[in-house]
Amino acid sequence: MAGGDVRKCAHPQKSIEQGITTFKVGASDTAEQMVISALGPVDLHHGEHSHGPPWDTLEIYGAAPTPSLRKALTAFGINDVQPIPGGFRASRSAGRRLGLTPPG
Fold it and tell me: In whole angstroms, how far apart are CA 57 and each of 27, 29, 41?
């Protein structure tokens, strides 16, 4: 995520809820590190103070939900992790959004 460079890629006919957010990351970062470093910016740009409705589900590709990654996800209110082809889906309920204290 070098320099916090966040690029949003979406089809013009789609809403922001159906778009994709990509991140520039360090070449030596592990998949786990890449995901953990992206959580804060995702919450900042798509969370309850920036977006209505705020994000509630992330689809993460190319990484596994390791214990460290699950711990980081929990800090952002994630309470459900399900495998999908190529990665996993991480979701939080509406009640878990409030009072969120991210790590760091």
Answer: 26, 23, 15
**Residues counted in the chain:** 104
Q: How far apart are CA 95 and CA 69, in angstroms?
A: 21
CA angle 53, 63, 81 (to 5 degrees): 50
pLDDT tens digits along 21-41: 677 778 899 999 999 998 988
**Residue keyed to tokens 């789609």:** 14
3-state SS track over the chain: CHHHCEEEECCCCCCHHHCEEEECCCCCCCHHHHHHHHHHHHHHHHCCCCCCCCCCEEEEECCCCCHHHHHHHHHCCCCEEEEECCEEEEECCHHHCCCCCCCC
What's the predicted TM-score (pTM) here?
0.69
Q: In whole angstroms, what is the distance from residue 25 CA to residue 21 CA?
A: 13
